[in-house]
Automatic annotation (TrEMBL):
The chain crosses the membrane at residues 38-55, 61-81, 102-126, 146-168, 175-195, 215-238, 250-274, 309-327, 358-377, 383-404, 420-438, 444-462. Coiled coil: none annotated. PANTHER family: CYTOSINE PERMEASE, CYTOSINE TRANSPORTER CODB. This is Cytosine permease. Keywords: Membrane, Transmembrane, Transmembrane helix. It comes from the Bacteria. InterPro entries: CodB.
Length: 485
């Protein structure tokens, strides 16, 4: 992507460069960073309100012990995915969806991966905005009217756009402080529950969950909620792995998000959600005349997924309310940022045009608003499971292409890029469809894991039958990607 002649010291030049953030080119060596610096970005996503909801809901369903065991397993799986995909982005210096042009899907075929990734990350952008909206209504005692939706969602959307428009630097600068604030307020809530109010933490550690039956039904329920997010955090990590200096930095980056999301947040979320549930139930009874204890208990469990901010509001009042906005500000900046990268690749791979990343930030936020209007929060669990089948299928194809077929060899000067890698596209469609069908028919609740395993197994076989160039042509190297100046 050629750069127009400009004065390097001008404000316009600086803002334009920050906004584009190498969206279609390889990150130059001079801008590479350490894994510890970059780790702030996935940690920001991993401490968001929606992750708090996922962690708490997992334990509500499966109990603390099973939930934590599943958290450790999913964290290990996500670290593996993040490291495997992150090395590819490190080699190419490009985002996850642009890297999929080189490994797995081809130049035009990468549009499919862009749609999957955009739907995933913009779905999280939408869900977290919806959780914030519910918390705002609760804190300020506002009616859920169309006027209020337009006002609150409109202001939030403008904030996400402003934060994401200038790319990685602002997000990284804010992430450290805001993450610490979020964790400190969460600890304050835990102190309120267990020290000041005298709740017994052993009630959390011995909590058995609401799923009846033995260990397997609870284990399956926990995996079905938490496991589907492994591909999500891995693909987000991949977008930042292109900034790594060394492979060791890739490993550090790949470990940060999953450990925080699946282990740290499971423990913290359990302590707040399980220990705080009695007060949430009392709050609902006090604020809803005529509500029974049973109805309040059922509504309290629903709050974990549909109004997670209620726990912060009830226990920390204005401090908690401000914190959930601070927590979301840094996470939403990353969500909007990654979503815009995916949309840039989508437009470029289909049309050959190079849209501005800033414009795609705006488009991504508009798409997220459409998802909110469609009721994405009410379909949270289903959304995660079906999304997991596609994201893990995509991860599997890219990993199989790079490691199993190409034996982890990549040379920017000689690597040929097909317009369509039909073996990869076919593998993704088949593995994703089978995984979703297994879940839709209740044959196997963990169909997204089947999608991943199938993609690893199918792709090498299909690549043998459909070698490079089958049914397609190759893209010129300078068209596939232009090195940064």
């Amino acid at each position: 992507m050629s750069s127009p002649t400009r004065n390097p010291g001008s404000t316009d030049s600086t803002l334009a460069s920050a906004a584009e953030d190498h969206s279609l080119v390889s990150v130059p060596t001079s801008e590479r960073r350490s894994g510890y610096q970059l780790a702030l970005s996935p940690i920001s996503v991993a401490t968001a309100l929606v992750v708090f909801a996922i962690a708490g809901f997992t334990v509500v369903l499966a109990g603390f012990t099973v939930g934590l065991i599943v958290g450790v397993i999913v964290a290990g799986f996500a670290v593996f995915l993040g490291k495997a995909l992150g090395r590819m982005a490190f080699e190419t210096g490009m985002s996850s969806t642009v890297t999929s042009r080189f490994f797995g899907f081809g130049f035009t075929g990468s549009a499919i991966g862009s749609v999957i990734f955009a739907f995933m990350i913009l779905g999280f952008l939408a869900m977290e905005a919806a959780l914030l909206y519910q918390g705002t209504l609760l804190m300020l005692d506002l009616p859920d009217s169309w006027a209020m939706r337009i006002l609150i969602y409109g202001l939030m959307t403008l904030l996400w756009i402003a934060l994401a428009i200038f790319g990685l630097k602002l997000a990284l600068r804010a992430s450290g402080v805001l993450t610490v604030v979020t964790l400190l307020v969460t600890i304050y809530m835990i102190i309120q529950i267990y020290v000041i109010q005298g709740a017994n933490p052993m009630d959390v550690f011995t909590y058995g969950g609401v799923i009846p039956g033995g260990v397997w039904p609870r284990f399956e329920a926990a995996i079905s909620v938490m496991g589907a997010t492994a591909g999500t955090i891995a693909l987000v990590t991949t977008d930042f792995a292109r900034y790594c200096r060394t492979r060791r930095d890739v490993t550090i980056l790949a470990a940060a998000g999953p450990i925080t999301q699946n282990i740290v947040m499971t423990i913290l979320g359990s302590l707040v959600v399980i220990g705080g549930m009695p007060d949430v139930i009392d709050y609902l009874i006090d604020h809803n005349a005529g509500m029974s204890q049973e109805a309040a208990a059922a509504a309290g469990s629903t709050f974990v997924m549909q109004n997670t901010g209620a726990f912060f509001v009830i226990y920390a009042a204005w401090m908690g309310f401000i914190t959930i906005y601070a927590a979301q500000a840094k996470a939403q900046a990353i969500n909007a940022y990654s979503g815009s990268l995916s949309l840039v690749n989508l437009v470029n791979s289909l049309t050959g045009r190079k849209p501005g990343r800033a414009l795609m930030v705006v488009v991504g936020n508009i798409i997220a608003l459409g998802m909110i209007a469609a009721g994405i929060l009410e379909q949270f669990s289903t959304y995660l499971a079906y999304l997991g089948a596609m994201t893990l299928g995509m991860c599997g194809v890219m990993i199989a292409d790079f490691y199993l077929v190409r034996r982890a060899r990549y040379n920017a000067g000689t690597h040929r890029v097909e317009k369509w890698n039909w073996a990869g596209v076919t593998t993704l469609v088949l593995s994703g469809a089978i995984g979703m069908a297994l879940m839709a028919t209740d044959v196997f609740a963990l169909g997204f894991l089947v999608s991943f395993v199938l993609s690893l197994a199918l792709y090498p076989m299909l690549r043998t039958w459909m070698p490079e160039g089958t049914g397609t042509s190759f893209v010129a190297g300078e068209e596939a990607v232009t090195e940064a100046h």
